[in-house]
């Protein structure tokens, strides 16, 4: 299975980088996992609704350029579907069983994802109704993907 985490913005925090590297190492025995970092669109603090859509649109174009037609896309969005770890594991297992060997998880920038990216997504995922920094979501997502593989293999993992 090939899993991509396509994300907007550069990761600067050393502690997050270390955690992400750890989970990428752990995941390497289960799947090929890559993190694709795309530049965020520079924008002033105060934006109009139209300017926000323009920023999301430009970031969305970058995201869509990294997704092939045969990739199953899961967009992380606050309004997405909430699942338990076991449910996520089951869905990843079903995708593998039915020949969806390429999965891309999309993490947008600070303004979220464009409508075009949301239309391309086959599914959505929300970890909470709370807002998290998109840099932290990379680590949380990788941990949950790792947990999913452990669950699917019947391997022990702390609860």
TrEMBL record:
It comes from the Bacteria. This is Ribosomal RNA large subunit methyltransferase H. Specifically methylates the pseudouridine at position 1915 (m3Psi1915) in 23S rRNA. Belongs to the RNA methyltransferase RlmH family. It comes from Sutcliffiella cohnii. Homodimer. Pfam families: SPOUT_MTase. InterPro entries: Alpha/beta_knot_MTases (IPR029028), RlmH-like (IPR003742), tRNA_m1G_MTases_N (IPR029026). Its EC number is 2.1.1.177. One of its GO terms (cellular component) is cytoplasm.
């Amino acid at each position: 299975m090939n899993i991509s985490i396509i994300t907007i913005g550069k990761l600067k925090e050393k502690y997050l980088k270390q955690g992400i590297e750890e989970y990428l190492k752990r995941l390497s025995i289960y799947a090929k996992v890559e993190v694709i970092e795309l530049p965020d669109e520079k924008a002033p603090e105060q934006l109009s609704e139209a300017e926000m859509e323009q920023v999301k649109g430009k970031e969305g174009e970058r995201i869509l350029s990294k997704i092939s037609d045969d990739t199953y896309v899961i967009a992380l969005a606050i309004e997405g579907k909430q699942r338990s770890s076991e449910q996520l594991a089951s869905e990843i297992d079903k995708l593998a069983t039915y020949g969806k060997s390429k999965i891309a998880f999309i993490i947008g920038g600070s303004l979220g994802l464009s409508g075009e990216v949301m239309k391309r997504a086959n599914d959505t995922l929300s970890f909470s109704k709370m807002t998290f920094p998109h840099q932290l979501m990379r680590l949380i997502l990788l941990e949950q993907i790792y947990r999913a593989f452990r669950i699917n293999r019947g391997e022990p993992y702390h609860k």
